[in-house]
Each structure stands twice: as structure tokens, then as C-alpha cells.
């Protein structure tokens, strides 16, 4: 949770580099909370409580919007750690915007999207893209040397203790 709060405190910091741990903790806390709210909404819808389900979907959408800037910030810094431009996160923003748009829709429309073959395919492809992107950013080790974005956060910490 400490890393999650660290990312929130550095929401407007788009320079420098982010370690895998910083990125991973933020993503996993963010995704876990999002999936829990989503699951709660689905349970409420199954229990024929659509108003509560819509409220939960609204809360989930609000969470997506509130955490968009910290997500973008930590993603830019993580890409910097890999030696890449922060603009590579544009793929994530486009896909995430599509997925977030679905949560703003009433449950009946979302159910229609998921029940159609085309809608299910598009949603599945989007989820796979996001998941693969996050896995890459989570597990790919950053550059061990100083790059154009700054010193390595991992190896500069290790050198302090050597």
C-alpha cells in the first residue's frame, strides 16, 4: 500500500523513472479494487437490484477517472525506466478509455455488448491488450544504467548499501 500512496503523491511527476515494484503495486491495488467493485455490481444486478449495480458501476467509473492521472504518471516513469518515451502509453489510454466507456453505460446496454459475439470479441481483445501491456511493464527489468530520463531507481538504491 505504501507504493500505491507514493504514486498518488507523485501524480504530476512525469519525469524520472519508476521501479517495477512501484508500478506493480499501484496497478494491482487499482485493479483489485476495480474488480471487486465490478463483481459487487454484477452480484447486485443478479439479485435484481439494478439501482445499486448502476451506483457501483458509477463508483467504478469515478475511480477510473480519479486514478487516470496517477496511472499515466507511473506508466510514463515506468516506460522511462525501460528507456522508452512516455508516449508509448497512448496505446493504454486508448484501450482503457474504451473499457471505461462501457462502465458508464447502463447494465442493460453492457449486457447487450457482452452477449453479442462482436462485442464479446472486442472486449476480450481489449482485456488481453491491457493485461499483456501491464505484464510487460511489470516484469521487464529497467535499464541498469543512467539513461536520458535519469538514474536507475533500482540500482542507485542498491549502490547505497554496497
From TrEMBL:
Keywords noted in UniProt: Membrane, Transmembrane, Transmembrane helix
Entry's transmembrane regions: 21-40, 52-74, 86-105, 121-139
Family annotation (InterPro entries): DUF805
This protein's GO CC annotations: plasma membrane
Pfam family, one: DUF805
Protein name: DUF805 domain-containing protein
Amino acid at each position: 500500500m505504501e507504493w500505491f500512496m507514493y504514486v498518488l503523491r507523485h501524480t504530476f511527476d512525469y519525469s524520472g523513472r519508476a521501479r517495477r515494484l512501484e508500478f506493480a503495486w499501484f496497478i494491482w491495488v487499482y485493479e483489485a479494487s476495480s474488480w471487486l467493485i465490478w463483481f459487487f455490481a454484477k452480484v447486485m444486478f443478479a439479485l435484481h437490484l439494478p439501482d445499486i449495480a448502476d451506483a457501483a458501476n458509477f463508483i467504478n467509473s469515478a475511480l477510473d477517472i480519479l486514478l487516470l492521472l496517477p496511472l499515466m504518471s507511473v506508466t510514463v516513469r515506468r516506460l522511462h525506466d525501460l528507456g522508452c518515451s512516455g508516449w508509448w502509453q497512448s496505446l493504454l489510454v486508448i484501450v482503457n478509455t474504451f473499457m471505461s466507456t462501457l462502465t458508464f453505460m447502463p447494465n442493460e446496454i453492457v449486457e447487450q455488448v457482452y452477449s453479442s459475439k462482436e462485442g464479446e470479441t472486442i472486449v476480450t481483445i481489449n482485456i488481453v491488450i491491457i493485461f499483456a501491456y501491464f505484464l510487460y511493464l511489470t516484469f521487464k527489468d529497467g535499464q541498469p544504467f543512467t539513461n536520458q530520463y535519469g538514474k536507475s531507481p533500482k540500482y542507485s538504491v542498491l549502490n547505497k548499501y554496497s
